[in-house]
Amino acid sequence: MKLLAVIGSALVLTGCTTINGVLETWSSKNDAKREYQVRTAWVRQTTVKDNLGFRKINRMTPVLAGELVIQGNGLDGIVAYERESGKQKWRLNIPNGAEPSAALIRDRLFVGASDGNFYSIEASTGQVQWTFPTKAENLSTPLLDEGIVYFLAGNNVFYALDAATGRQLWLYSRQDTSQFSIRGGSQAALHNGTIYVGFTDGSLVALNAKNGSAVWEVQLNNNKRFRDIDATPVIDGNQIYIAGYDDKLYSVSADKGEVLWRIDGGGYSAVTLAGDKLFFPTTNGEVWALKKANGEKLWSYKVKDGIATQVKTYKGSLVFGESQGRLQFLDMNSGAVLGGMEPGRGILSSPQVDEKANRVYFISGEANLYAIEAGWTKKPYFTE
């Protein structure tokens, strides 16, 4: 049985007003000359029909492929739009949709779907190149390296496939005897020929990338109810940062699997590194800024509605979605709110950032794809 946990309460740090559809916000009383504006450039419904039944989970991070933005939903498939205008270019119908995020290399999109298949798709046209049957729903983002695609299927089987043909190279399987598991799956990370991936039994495993043999494994999450390690391992030098659901954030040595430090506070998303800091969304509804070296907390932000998606950096700020609320922008140094917008029914997908175009893309809980423009502007009424 798969469950998705959502929690939350609130803290509003700035004032805001809406004028002609533009949400204008001020970061502090001292910032008299500028305002942070967030507005919708365009929005598109990604499903063929309105979803009038039970709520589906939409959490694929939009993929930027040349002039296209490609988005999957949890209901009926994957759609590509022009990034600038939002005009639909192609649609690939997939029963029950594609829930996890996808990986792109050149003109090939790789993604697992809820119909029990893994897909290789031509990104420019939406033509399927090959499929591989996993006989289970697929919930984790694939990893691509040197012509090999690695991914974890929903039945705790980790695959390595030839990216050109879909031929299986090797697999690694683990059994999990627990009755409950969080709906999700860890994306693998690769470092110096070793694959690192988390499993639902609470373990982090290092595998030989060539043959799938285990190099080491360490049991991290020992919770009696949810032991999942669904977060993506993030590697920095010899340190791996990874969280257990409702558990702890760990720093683990990449060479030996030894725990270097841990702090209380579980998560299901990857941490985000920026300089000497890391940013971490917890399962108790907070976003933390920590010192990368030892996990010392610098500031925390309490999410108003639910829990946060993975945090992305955007022009000196942080952006993330709230599972039951808004797209939120924070100041990276202080955690103060800069601005945001309310899409309806929350956000479970980590946003995609395009800094050159001053845009952020994300899919909402209603399966609507948004193109958002955000940034600092001079207040129109300010005079020297």
List keywords for this structure.
Lipocalin; 0% helix; 6-stranded antiparallel beta sheet; 2 domains; globular; mainly beta
Describe the protein in words:
The chain has strands at 2-3, 16-19, 22-25, 34-45, 63-65, 68-72, 77-82, 88-93, 103-105, 108-112, 117-122, 128-133, 143-145, 148-152, 157-162, 168-173, 181-182, 189-191, 194-198, 203-208, 214-219, 234-236, 239-243, 248-253, 259-264, 272-274, 277-281, 286-291, 297-302, 312-314, 317-321, 327-331, 337-341, 352-354, 359-363, 368-378. Residues 1-30 have low confidence and may be disordered. Strands 2-3-4-36-35-34 form a six-stranded antiparallel sheet, with no helix packed on it. Strands 5-6-7-8 form a four-stranded antiparallel sheet, with no helix packed on it. A four-stranded antiparallel sheet has the order 9-10-11-12, with no helix packed on it. By secondary structure, the chain is mostly beta strands. The chain folds into two domains: 1-55 and 287-384, Lipocalin; 57-173, Lipocalin (Beta Barrel), CATH 2.40.128.630. The chain contains no helices and 36 strands. Residues 77-301 form the Pyrrolo-quinoline quinone repeat domain. InterPro entries: PQQ_b-propeller_rpt (IPR018391), PQQ_rpt_dom (IPR002372), Quinoprotein_ADH-like_sf (IPR011047), WD40/YVTN_repeat-like_dom_sf (IPR015943). This is PQQ-binding-like beta-propeller repeat protein.
